[in-house]
Amino acid sequence: MSKIHVTTTVNGDETEFLCDPRETLLDVLRDRLSLTGAKEGCGTGDCGACSVTLDGRLVCSCLVLGAEAEGKSIGTVEGIAQGEELDPLQEKFIEYAALQCGICTPGILVATKSLLEKNPDPSETEIRYWLAGNLCRCTGYDKIIRAVMDTAADLRKAS
Amino acid sequence: MKYHSPKSFEDAAAIAQNADGITRYLAGGTDVLVQLRADVVTPDDLIDIKKIDGVHDITETGDGWTIGVAVSGAEMSEHPALGMEWPGIVEAMDLIGSQQIQGRATLVGNLCNGSPAADSVPALVAAGASVTLTRTGGTRTVAVEDVPTGPGRTSLEKDEVVSAVNIPKQVENGGDAYLRFIPRTEMDIAVVGCGVNLRLDGDTITEARVSLGAVAPTVLLVEEAAKAIIGTTLDGGALEALASAASTACNPIDDKRGTIKFRTHVAGVLAKRAAKIAYDRAKGVK
Question: Within this chain, do residues B139 and B56 fall inside the same structural domain, yes or no?
Fold first, then answer.
């Protein structure tokens, strides 16, 4: 089967790859671009572990074809930290121990960044609804929600 | 599987017309890719319609609204005016899936996937919305309620593609609402859905459309339910007649999410609640 040539931008860097028409963006990120932050949980858009942004819009990369990335701008968890320096959100997740096994964490970080960019002052209810598509089987969510609320509060103080 | 990204709906329709095997159109992909990955439906030709001009646009026309076939739920929710005029439609779309799904899912995908439990479809039916179908050499317009013919099936011909959703202008003193029942607060599929769109003259309802989802093989436009409230002020008697008509129209299945008895009862309850919200909106109550 002939492969599709795709040119796209990932975390600000222009990149290109060849992919099978059936290959998802998640597979491309992990297997062709070696960006293994996004995880495959369900593969059907239910768990959010593969969350990335596509032209700034939060999506499940398991429900996007690699071919659809042509000309788009993709943001993954690898793009959140500035080099060795963690993002305040990541620091806060560590401080609050808002992760245990860590499989859901990349998706939750990407989803949360997306929320805070749109809404710097989310209520607890808004955070819980926004993250409803990110399943975590370890934490019970509470520590995640506290970490997000505290990050938002710090960011508001800083701005 | 061949991946196509045509630049026009005519080209998209021509690809489908000339295809020998299974064809699927790709917009948001939230159903098509799930089916692809689960090996439920493996298209021979996958036609991505997102590269066609105008498919990402929400356009206010003199007659109402044209929603491009690739407009996502999130884009509808963020639109400054659409939800003011048609809150029921926008809220119905917004109920579907997570924020991630909202970033991709479309009205047309919800319609053409053919699920009886599609949330946006009853709201579109209540609003009197239609879709434009394009084929090589022509277009036709079909009412939304005439598109689904059964679970997973539509009335579209092989060489037709939905090229736009047309929502009429909301009338003066009109209001719409959509409610669904799910056993939890988020991330679930409708057990019952109900859309109501109505118009008032003073306190009296002069026009109404009532629709039900997830209680029959396709969405239902329930004329008897509309008749039950037209000419009334949505008083207690009218609400009971509405509930009774809605329940009578149901022909649901029993499954793990709801029994026949439960769905039939809840259809009446939701019809009353949705009608009250639509009535308040028509009155201008926020």
Answer: yes
